[in-house]
From TrEMBL:
It comes from the Bacteria. Pfam families: RibD_C. Gene3D superfamilies: Dihydrofolate Reductase, subunit A. SUPFAM superfamilies: Dihydrofolate reductase-like. It comes from Streptomyces fragilis. Transmembrane segments: none annotated. Residues 2-182 form the Bacterial bifunctional deaminase-reductase C-terminal domain. InterPro entries: DHFR-like_dom_sf (IPR024072), RibDG_C (IPR002734), Riboflavin_Biosynth_HTPR (IPR050765). Signal peptide: none annotated. This is Dihydrofolate reductase family protein.
């Protein structure tokens, strides 16, 4: 069974919206303009590319990342990695040709079936709505969180507001950096 890893830049109050500067969000670009850059704090991002066997995205994140990541040297490992997009509206004609093998999944049941296949971990980038749905369905196995020392208030949240039983997490790796950033890696306890 493959491990499904949710990776996110998240504010202390749980916001994940527009960390890299996407238009339309009041605090857009908060990861780079509001916190001093320390390369060592982002080591986990390179490790994720080396360790992952596939990438899973929601439609909105696929459309944003596929427009820029295929030509970026920083994301070269993702170019050749199989990608899966969970969407009920995306068509094969909407997929970009220069980003390698991409498969459209139409449901969380198809994600659950993907987890049963052979291969390395499946990494989920961005995809706030998909992350909430995956969590509610009990499909996420691990979280890689870079927590920024910011309170953003409004914005898309990583975690669902669904009224459900508590979900216990086990901290398996952590580090605090001089700029206030925290790396927290949690396994979901089942």
């Amino acid at each position: 069974m493959r491990t499904l890893i949710s990776t996110a830049f998240v504010s202390l109050d749980g916001v994940v919206e527009a960390p890299g500067g996407e238009p339309g969000y009041r605090n857009s670009g908060w990861t780079f303009k509001d916190v001093d850059f320390l390369p060592e704090a982002y080591e986990i991002k390179g490790r994720e590319q080396k360790e992952a066997g596939a990438m899973l995205l929601g439609r909105v994140s696929y459309e944003a990342f596929s427009a820029v990541w295929p030509d970026m040297e920083d994301f070269a490992d993702y170019k050749v990695m199989p990608k899966y997009v969970v969407s009920t509206t995306l068509t094969e004609d909407d997929l970009v040709a220069n980003w390698g093998e991409t498969t459209i999944l139409r449901s969380l049941d198809e994600v659950a079936a993907l987890k049963e296949t052979e291969g390395g971990p499946i990494i989920v980038h961005g995809s706030a709505a998909l992350n909430r749905s995956l969590s509610d369905a009990g499909l996420i196995d691990r979280y890689h969180l870079l927590v920024f020392p910011l309170l953003l208030g409004a914005g898309k949240r990583l975690f669902s507001a669904t009224d459900k039983d508590a979900q216990k997490l086990r901290l398996v790796e952590h580090e605090v950096y001089a700029n206030g950033l925290q790396k927290n890696v949690f396994d979901v306890v089942r």
